[in-house]
Amino acid sequence: MVNQYDYFDKQIASLNLSNYYIIKKGEFAYNKSYSNGYPYGTIKRLDSLEKGALSSLYICFSVNDIDSDYLVKFFDSGKWNNQVKLISGEGARNHGLLNLSPKDFFEININVPSSRNEQIKIAKFLTLVDKKLDLLINKIEALKKYKEGLILKTLKPTIENWKKGSVNGIRLSSFLVPYKKLATSDNYIHATLSKEGISDKTERYNRDFLVKDENKKYRITDEGDLVYNPANLKFGVICINRYGTCVVSPIYETLKVKNIDRDLLESIVTSKSFIRYALRFEEGTVYERRAVSVVDLLSIKICIEDKNLDTICNILKAVKRKIDILNYVKEQLFKAKSYLLNAMFI
User: Fold this and answer.
1) Can you give the pLDDT at residue 217?
2) Which long-range contacts (CB under 8 A, 24 or more apart) does 67-71 make?
3) What's the mean pLDDT in 135-158?
4) Burial of residue 273, with CB atoms counted within 10 A of its CB: 0-12 exposed, 13-18 middle, 19 or more buried
5) For the chain, what is the mean pLDDT?
6) Fewer CB atoms near the end CB (10 Å): N or C, the chain?
C-alpha cells in the first residue's frame, strides 16, 4: 500500500510549488478574499486531507494552548471580523484581497475562555448543533429525492411519449388557464419568485429601480395559482403560489389551476424530467433571456392515468408536509445557532 505522505510528497516534488504553502491536517488557513456573506474572508481548518498546498496569498497557521475545535467554531461565528476591519481599513482592498499582512493578522485580539474544559464544552455543544443541522438537511434532501423518484415513476408513460414524439396525452392547457390581472393600486404586497417559491421582496431581489416607466403595472397573483418565470424555468423557477395574494413582476406568467390536484401538478412541472423537456421550447439568442413561452408550456402533453393516482397524490402531500416541517425546524435551528454564536463569542 502506498503511504499517503510519500505519495503526496512525490506529487509536490514533481510540481513547481515555490510560491505555495504546505498545510497539514489540523492546521488553519485564512483566505483574505471577500465574497458574498464573508466581507472579511474566511478561516477554515484542514480536516478532510492529511496535507494540502495553498497559494502564498493565504495566511496559514497552527494553534497551541487553545482547543482547536473551539477555534473552528469561533472563526465560523465571524466575531473576529471587527478586528480585521480595524486593522485592514475599510475599503483597503487590492484585486479582491484585503490589505492585511500576516504580522497584522497575528496581532488580532480574541476573547477565549481561560478554562480549556470550558472551551471543549462550547465546541462540543456547537458541534452537536451542526450535526443536528446536517441531519435535517440530509433528511430534507432524501425526501426530495424520494418525491422526485415517485414523480418519475408517475411520469414514465409521459416520458416514453415524449421520446417517441407521440400525440397521446393531455395538454397542460386542460389544467392551466393563463390570466393577466394587473394591479391598479399600491395596496398589495410586492413579492418575488425564486426556486424556493414566492416570498417577500427583499433588497436582494428588488429591481424596481430599473423600471423606467412609472405607469408599469404589476401582476396580481392569488394563492393557488401556478407562477413561473419564462426566462428562468431552466433554474426551476416555477411553483404554486402558497404565499397568498400579492403582486409580482409582469415578466412572470400567472395561471389558474383547474381539474387537477395542485400538489401533483406542482410536483410534475418542477420535476427535472419535465423541465428538461420543456427547455426544448426555449427561444432566444442570449442564454440569460432564452425563455419558454406560456403558449409552448401549455402545449406540453402529460399522461396521468395511473390507477394509483389518488394514493400518489396523498403521498406527495404527506412528503411535502414533512419537508415543510423539517425546513421550518432547520430555519429555527439556524436562528438558534446564530443566537448562540453571538452569545458565546464576544
Assistant:
1) 81
2) 67/116, 67/119, 67/120, 67/123, 68/26, 69/120, 69/123, 69/124, 69/127, 70/112, 70/113, 70/119, 70/120, 70/122, 70/123, 71/28, 71/45
3) 92
4) middle
5) 84
6) N
Provide the whole-model pTM.
0.71
pLDDT single digits (tens) 200-212: 876 544 545 444 4
Class of domain 170-300: alpha beta
Dist. CA 174–CA 51, nearest whole Å = 60
Output the pLDDT for position 202: 64
State the Cα–Cα distance between residues 122 and 331, nearest whole angstrom: 21
Average pLDDT over residues 4-19: 52
Domain 116-155+303-346 architecture: Orthogonal Bundle (1.10)
Domain ranges of the chain: 19-112, 116-155+303-346, 170-300
Which ranges constitute the DSSP H helices of 34-101?
68-77, 81-88
Q: How far apart are CA 275 and CA 196, in angstroms?
A: 16
Quick one: residue 329, left, alpha or beta (phi over 0 = left, psi -120 to 50 = alpha)? alpha
Distance CA 54, CA 31 (A): 10
Same fold, 116-155+303-346 and 170-300: no
